[in-house]
Write a structure and sequence with these properties.
This protein is of the alpha+beta class. It contains 5 helices and 7 strands.
Length: 246
């Protein structure tokens, strides 16, 4: 070009984003494959332990060992299920979600499934709040937070409180959840969103990690607030101003 200089411009951010998407897609396929390979022998273990239990010829010491097998098999299955949830992280399908209808239905489902007394969870959600979120992701985030709160609270009436309100600038919705437990020690606060970190025997340490990952995938933020009593979480989500908004 007669001594000229050819300048080639490339959007580095876009290239990095595409590379990350390819990496996540490959990780998702690997995760699904590993989960399938784990669950096949796990199913055989569960079936064998059930047959031994039904046989009736197991000694008392054997009953204790069978119980250990069943409990740990359930824990492995739960870990696999939670890891598979991350496979949906980057396949979100955002939609306008009416918070009052969504939260009322979800909390009713959670208290039944987790054996929580009806007044164990109290909720205050305005009628007119709409958010833009993947419905399945929001379901999983709230479920993980409520389950975690119930495991650590005093298990009394109103032990878990959920409050939704508009953000101060009007373009966000704030959902806060707090419990009446002992809270999270200051020295552990920086670790609670790390994968496999747990202080509860038998816990997987994936619930809060998955909740934050799913929130991030929807452009939301999940935070642990320093105020108490108990643990206090806040989700900041994009607000929709009309049911037709995309």
């Amino acid at each position: 070009m007669n001594g000229g200089t050819l300048i080639y411009l490339e959007d580095l951010g876009r290239a990095q984003s595409e590379a990350q998407q390819m990496k996540l897609a490959a990780m998702g396929r690997l995760t699904a494959s590993i989960a399938h390979e784990i669950r096949n022998p796990l199913s055989a273990i569960n079936q064998a332990s059930q047959l031994l239990e039904e046989d009736g010829a197991v000694a008392p010491e054997g009953e204790r060992l069978l119980s250990m097998i069943r409990n740990n098999a359930k824990r492995i299955d739960r870990i696999v299920g939670e890891v598979l949830q991350l496979n949906r992280r980057d396949r979100q399908q955002p939609e306008v979600v009416p918070m009052i209808d969504f939260m009322t239905s979800l909390v009713e489902e959670i208290v039944q499934a987790e054996a929580i007394p009806p007044r164990g969870v109290v909720m205050q959600v305005p009628d007119d709040l709409l958010v833009i979120f993947d419905r399945g992701h929001l379901n999983q985030i709230v479920w993980n937070l409520v389950r975690n709160a119930w495991q650590h609270c005093q298990k009394k009436e109103s032990s878990i409180r959920i409050l939704a309100r508009p953000g101060y600038m009007g373009d966000a919705v704030i959902l806060e959840l707090n419990d009446d437990g002992q809270g999270i020690p200051a020295e552990l606060r920086g670790q609670i969103f790390e994968p496999f970190f747990t202080t509860r025997p038998g816990g997987t340490g994936l619930g809060l990690y998955i909740a934050r990952e799913l929130a991030d995938a929807n452009g939301a933020a999940l935070e642990l607030l320093p105020k108490g009593p108990g643990a206090h979480f806040r989700i900041t989500m994009k607000r929709a101003l009309s049911p037709a908004e995309k």
